[in-house]
Write a structure and sequence with these properties.
2 helices, mainly alpha, about 95% helix, single chain
Length: about 120
């Protein structure tokens, strides 16, 4: 009976050792899976960083265009302001001439017309 007990102990020890070996192998495989996953995530992170860099370049380009357009808008505003001043002066001259002509009698109007355009 003693011999059988020793065989049983040896079998139990062998089974435990085999279990430990399989546990180590599965742990190594799991570590490899995590390493692969980490590598994938690193590649994805690098890709995202490249996309961010491209986007930042586009943003810089658009900001430059905005500055250019703002400058052009300011120049256009100045030109429009100058044209408004000229238009206001011309309107004032027109109103003065119209008021003066409306105040003339028919005879004075004919005389003014003849002086301006002369007789042909």
């Amino acid at each position: 009976m003693k011999l059988d007990l020793n065989k049983i102990y040896i079998c139990i020890i062998v089974v435990l050792l085999i279990g430990l070996i399989f546990q180590r192998i599965s742990l190594i495989n799991t570590t490899n899976k995590y390493d692969i996953e980490v590598e994938k995530l690193t590649q994805k992170n690098d890709s995202l960083l490249a996309d961010i860099a491209k986007t930042n370049t586009k943003i810089s380009s658009l900001n430059s265009m905005i500055s250019t357009y703002k400058s052009e808008i300011e120049q256009s505003k100045l030109q429009l302001n100058n044209l408004k001043i000229i238009a206001d002066k011309n309107k004032q001259k027109y109103n003065e001439a119209r008021t003066r002509i409306n105040a003339l009698s028919n005879r004075a109007l004919v005389s003014e017309f003849t002086k301006t355009f002369g007789s042909r």
